[in-house]
Amino acid sequence: MNDISIRISGRAGRITLQRPEALNAMTYEMCVAIERAFDAWAREDAVALVILDAEGDRAFCSGGDIAELYATGTNGDFAYGQKFWADEYRLNQKIFQFPKPVVSFLQGFTMGGGVGLGCHGSHRIVGETSQIAMPECGIGLMPDVGGTLMLALAPGRLGEYLGTTAARMNASDAIFAGFADHFIPEDQWPDLIATLEQTGDVGRITSDTPAPGPLQAAMPDIDRHFHGAALGDVLTTLRAEDSDFARDTLKRMGRNSPLSMACTIEALHRLRGPHLTLEKALDLEYRFTARAMEHGDFLEGIRAAIIDKDRAPKWQYSDGAVPATAVSKMLMPLGKMALKLGGTGMKIGFIGLGNMGAPMAANLASAGHDVVGVDVAGTTAAGVGTASSAQEAATGADIVIAMLPNGDILRSVAGEASPAMRAGATFIDCSTVYVESARAVASMAEAAGSLCVDAPVSGGIGGAAGGTLTFMAGGTEAAFATAAPLFEIMGQ
Measured between alpha carbons, how far is 380 from 391 in angstroms, rounded to an integer? Predict the structure, then answer.
């Protein structure tokens, strides 16, 4: 393949992008080839580390090659794009979790898909020309390829600002925001790469300190204007202020899809917290991208920017007033279409596969969790394994969830399941029962060394099937933190 060079040189697995005329944009074929290399090198003892770089001085990788996405999408074929994004996100996760050091050299533009390729490794090197950005809202997407993880972890409200304005980060700001690790002058990169190839030792990487970037100086303005709960709050504060920052920021945001910006802010609010993981970020991103062609602004954004180049996209909600329901529809669980990364889920025992429990358990399984269920009526759920008893379902589980019809049955089941649960596991009771039963179950869990969350639901069978339930949860902070990622799969 002429677009990419994949080889072993010394102690290093080497991947070099070779499309400088296209700013090293990554095609689907390149994505597949890179994943195969990572899979092989994870097991190859001769490879001590992986080095990612690119030809040309204008870009490490400007993003994904979207021409084929547009061509298929305008013909009503949304499956191609969904597969492209799912496979790309799987590669992002493999880079993030790779058991050996991954060193990337990020000259020039690193944007969109380039961030997913170059910014999830262990040693991310930037230089004088580096310009890193997440510009997806400008083409009707939202920041993806795991970028929302870094945006959610960025200082203050910098994540919301970067995600909605597509602002570019120089080397210093990229390090400040968490998208890079080391500043090294670019004329030193060839010698460093040669040393890494020879030694396989990332301890040879040393950093210089660049001067602070402009975004660091703007943090008081960014935090003041981007702390709101929704896009409308941000726009309101910006429009109310007569300042260079407010005018420049409104101009930047005025180019972008309001629906995409609103979903970006909502996604970051959902992700930010103690249970943030890359898997959770990718799942939430895929909910949006899987719908982006059919229900979002993606095809219109590409038309205006790439095809017709009129720079005049006709966005939905062009006045910036994006309804909360529109955001919810773009970010609601995908059910059977959910992103499947493999090997990243929890082991869950689900007790009670009735009209509510079965679709709840199926949504957890489709999100990549290993779910085993049991029901006295012998009912089953899609993607859910079968246990013969509550004790069997609870044995070795990280989480046990009960959805049962009354307190007496709940107490009986908890009495059987609690002794079988491992120490530190969590029992989540989603049944609607009297408080005495809920307290009794919590006491059983505590006596067994487990955590407990009382979490009755609202939303009916339709909400259970669609993953839009509301959970009214009570428990310790530690127990809730464990349960919260599952609530966000089964509900909103």
Answer: 17
Q: How far is CA 355 from CA 71, 358, 405, in A?
A: 41, 6, 11
Residues with Cβ within 8 Å of 98's Cβ and at least 6 positions away in sequence, in order, are 38, 42, 50, 121, 122
Residues in the chain: 492
Contact criterion met (CB below 8 Å) for 118 and 52: yes
What is the C-alpha separation between 354 and 361, in angstroms, rounded?
10
Spatial contact of 490 and 464, defined as CB atoms under 8 Å apart: yes
Report d(CA 103, CA 182) in Å as an integer: 10
Q: Which amino acid is at 26?
A: M
Could you say which DSSP state residue 389 is in?
A: S
Per the CB < 8 A criterion, the answer to whether 57 and 113 are in contact is no
Q: Measuring CA to CA, which residue among 307, 372, 383, 375 is closest to residue 338? A: 383
Q: Name the DSSP letter for residue 346.
A: P
Interior angle at CA 77, CA 76 and CA 80, nearest 5:
155
pLDDT tens figures, 157-187:
999 999 999 999 999 999 999 999 999 999 9
Q: How far is CA 81 from CA 34, 54, 294, 334, 462, in A?
A: 19, 25, 11, 15, 28
Secondary-structure percent of the chain, ordered helix, strand, coil, rounded to 5: 50, 15, 35
State the helix-helix crossing angle for 278-295 and 258-271, rounded to 10 degrees.
160
Tokens of 333: 């669980």
- Predicted pLDDT of residue 370: 86
Distance CA 474, CA 455 (A): 6
**What would the two tokens of residue 16 be?**
């070099």
User: And the tokens for 309?
Assistant: 């180049």
Angle between helix 244-254 and helix 231-239 axes, rounded to 10 deg = 140
Walk me through the domains of the chain, giving residue ranges and CATH numbers. 4-336 (3.90.226.10), 345-490 (3.40.50.720)
- Sheet of strand 347-351: strand arrangement: 385-386, 370-374, 347-351, 399-402, 426-429, 451-454, 474-475
Query: C-alpha angle with apex 224: 218 to 225, nearest 5 degrees?
Result: 95
CB 231 within 8 A of CB 130: no
Query: For residues 445 and 257, what is the distance between their CA atoms, to the nearest angstrom?
Result: 48
* Residue pLDDT, tens place only, 317-374: 999 999 999 999 999 998 888 898 865 567 899 999 999 999 999 988 877 788 999 9
Under DSSP, is residue 114 helix (H, G, I), strand (E, B) or coil? Answer: helix
Distance (Å, whole) CA 89 – CA 87: 5
Taking the C-alpha atoms of residue 480 and residue 391, their distance in angstroms, rounded to an integer, is 23
Find where tokens 């180019």 sit.
Answer: 255
Q: What token pair was written down for 310? A: 């009129």
Q: Measure the CA–CA gap between 258 and 129, rounded to whole angstroms.
A: 30
